[in-house]
Amino acid sequence: MTITFRQLTPALGAEVSDVDIAGGVSNPDFAEITQLFNDYSVLVFRGQYIDNAQQIAFSRRFGHLEGTVRSNLGAGSEIAVISNVDLETDTILSADDWRNVYNSGNEMWHTDSSFKRVPAIASLLSGREVPPEGGNTEFATGRAAWDDLEDSLKEELDGLIAIHDFAYSRGLIRDDLVDEAQRRETPPVPQAVIRRNPANGRCNIYAGAHASHIRGRDVEEGRTLLRELTERIVQERYTYTHHWQPGDLVMWDNRCCLHRGCPWDKAKHRRVMHRTTIAGIGPTAA
Ligand code: OGA
Ligand code: MN
User: 248 CB less than 6 Å from ligand 1?
Assistant: First the structure.
């Protein structure tokens, strides 16, 4: 079987067809998927009714998997469960349950694990139960944003280092969501503001909600610059919106694009998403 694909928007995204992830992906097909991932940043696979073991096995072919952050739902495993359902009772959480509030951090434009010293390469999100309306996931590419930067700004950003901080970003939602133990587990880390993919030489802006300030600059001044960079990335023409259907598996490149979840009627409709996360291979800044 040979895979086929179609581009989703001019800026990013490809829907990949003629793939059966549960049944097994051949090495040549896998090599092509890797190439598409590097070129299009967001890959959509429809009709993939996979279980956790199959998701983990496919994900591992891209690299080592991250464990989930302590105190998140389903912590300590290679599958992060992002849902509005209580795992033990299998009932829908009340809209104001702290877990829904905590997960609403995903509704800010961000890139996964940029608050870790070695940030994630990719995430694979499997829609196990999706709501009939709302709950889309939006993606925006930092590549087009970099391509469109004025030369003077490209020069200014070259070599700049941002400090990313999970406690900062979750603190924007509510100040009691991150406890002391978690603060110690995820101390602020340095990340390059401009990144380059060695596979194809494409550069991109790297920012998002976890980016707190700029090393060596006044905090508020750096924060303003980072917000401005994030705003440039998320312009509508650089985005793709994914409308979930059951069986969808969506994979994205955390090195060069931002994403965010969209609200839905959380008190009424179940939404259960299982995520695997491919760890990076080294830090982006010293
Ligand atoms: C994630 C995430 C958004 C969503 O899983 O990393 O940000 O739409 N999810 O569930
Ligand atoms: Mn995310």
Answer: no
Which one of the ligands is nearest to 244 CA? Answer: 1
| Residue closest by Cα to atom 1 of ligand 1 | 106
38, 32 Cβ separation under 8 angstroms: no
DSSP 271: -
| Closest ligand relative to 138 C-alpha | 1
45 neighbors 4 (Cβ within 8 angstroms): no
DSSP three-state, residue 13 = coil
- Probe target for ligand 1 pocket from 259, 272, 276, with the most ligand atoms within 8 Å of CB: 259
User: What one-character-per-residue DSSP string does 233-255 give?
Assistant: HT-GGGEEEE---TT-EEEEETT
Question: Whole-model pTM?
Answer: 0.96
- The residues pairing with 110 across neighbouring beta strands, listed in sequence order, are 259
Strand partners, 211: 164
What average pLDDT does the structure give for the chain?
95
Q: Is the CB of 261 under 6 A from ligand 1?
A: yes
Strand order in the sheet with 249-253: 4-7, 14-17, 42-45, 249-253, 122-129, 272-278, 80-83
Strands 42-45 and 211-214: unpaired
The DSSP call for residue 171 is H
The average pLDDT across 87-111 equals 93
What are the tens digits of pLDDT across the range 149-158? Answer: 999 999 999 9
Is the distance from CB of 23 to CB of 45 less than 8 angstroms? no
What SS3 class is residue 145?
helix
Tens of pLDDT, residues 225-265: 999 999 999 999 999 999 999 999 999 999 999 999 999 99
